[in-house]
Amino acid sequence: MEHKDPVCGMTVVEGKEAAKSEYKATTYYFCSRGCKVACDKSPSRFVNDDGTLKAGGQMPMGSH
Question: What is the pLDDT of residues 14-59, one digit of tens each?
Fold first, then answer.
């Protein structure tokens, strides 16, 4: 199954992710440890209260 990295927006394949985290009972998958750290530090910057990903606020690729 494919997921969208909430920080940079890259497509991440479940099972091949660099890292993952849980926030409000939802698992999020990351392309890199840097994206995981950014999301863990400030999850509300990337994830809405209902668990959906925010349209804005994502870091551009290359900044992680």
Answer: 999 999 999 999 999 999 999 999 999 999 999 999 999 998 656 6
- Domain of residue 11, residue span: 2-45
Residue 60, domain member (yes or no):
no
What phi, psi does 13 have (nearest 5°)? Answer: -90, 125
Contacts of 1 (CB under 8 A, 6+ apart): 13, 14
Are 36 and 21 contacting, i.e. CB atoms less than 8 angstroms apart? Answer: yes
Residue 21 within a domain: yes
